[in-house]
């Protein structure tokens, strides 16, 4: 049984899904891949099913009935990973904004280092973002500054979506209580990990904006993040987190 599972949520990623699967599965480190597809109209799931005949023991698919948000997709994947006894569980985008070659860096931070949660960080050594407009860079960077101020977490990239969790972290978090779905989901998971006193480390990466497909960013996701951070801190203060 392999101990590493890379969870990749998809919605209309037909242009990227085969390439990202093949690239992850071709890494020197042996990974399994779980695609969580939200019934993509472009038939992303059908492409995954076709590839399963080639990677029958390494590629898995969970197809949901409808688009239900990034956070719920990852929670679905986390539960699947725990049920199937994986020890290192990764989050990763389908669009190559996260470099599959960096997966092993995150793994090493947890397996060889002392991290319980390793974050592929865009900002721990400056601003390492390629092809984003300045407005998007500033939004993301100052969102993390805001999160540090409100929560007290010493994390430079609180909204990062490229991470590795040790199994015991996810086992300790009440996954059914996770509330948020966008940027705030990423913040909430890190904050719950922080509140459980697990070790969090940041691994520097270079983030490259997608070249194929469409971004899922929206104003509602930004608003959720801004107010969600305050809600999380208040819950912590009254011991309900």
TrEMBL record:
Domain of life per record: Bacteria
Transferase keyword on record: yes
Keywords, sorted A to Z: Glycosyltransferase, Transferase
Annotated Gene3D superfamilies: Spore Coat Polysaccharide Biosynthesis Protein SpsA, Chain A
InterPro entries, per the entry: DPM1-like, Glyco_trans_2-like, Nucleotide-diphossugar_trans
Pfam families: Glycos_transf_2
Annotated Glycosyltransferase 2-like domain residues: 6-172
Record carries keyword Oxidoreductase: no
Family stated for the protein in its record: Belongs to the glycosyltransferase 2 family.
Protein name: Dolichyl-phosphate beta-D-mannosyltransferase
